[in-house]
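Each field is set out underneath.
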Amino acid sequence: MKIRNLYQQGITLLESLIAIIVIALGVLGILGIQMRTLNNTQNSLYRTQAIRLIDDLSERIAANPNALLNIKEYITTNWGNNQEFSQNCKTEKCSNENLAKYDLLQWRNSVKNSLPLGDARTFISDDEASVADNKRQLGVMIAWRMNENNNSQEYLEPLNAATDSGNTVSCPDNHTCHLQYIPLLARCAPYYASNTTKVFCPGS
């Protein structure tokens, strides 16, 4: 009787396991890249939203006829929207001073609702320290929950800004911040004459 020689056919279990491991590592690598890309995209969206919020504040200030004269009402003293103001300037008549308080409160609520753990500080730039009655540059720092790689030193560096009073506004811990300075524009501009601050409104 003729005996056939038997040869191994197919692949062994070990080769199959190695192939599965290689494929799994490749898939994990692709997922890691996608997650990092998604994270960067999300952070870019947050920063874009912060810029839009600052533009919104700038437009609110420009809409207030006496914004420059009431600039102190646009200044915040700490993080956390603990501002108290009950008047509704949409339904009630408000003075220009109260309109500034109302706009700041509404704007800070918008920051809180638009960004994760969103918060904001506003202050007069230290470049305006020598200007007595005509300060025209407002610093705005918006913060939101940090979502960065802890090993990325670029995001671990502190962000600080000096104010006209000599204080420092710092980005809160475990937050990412965007800092921007905006010029204060208003229809009515204050000017100093006869030892008093007066307001000039073009066309009035």
About this structure: The CA atoms of residues 78 and 155 lie 22 Å apart. The chain has a mean pLDDT of 78. The chain has one domain: 13-200. The chain is about 35% helix and 20% strand.
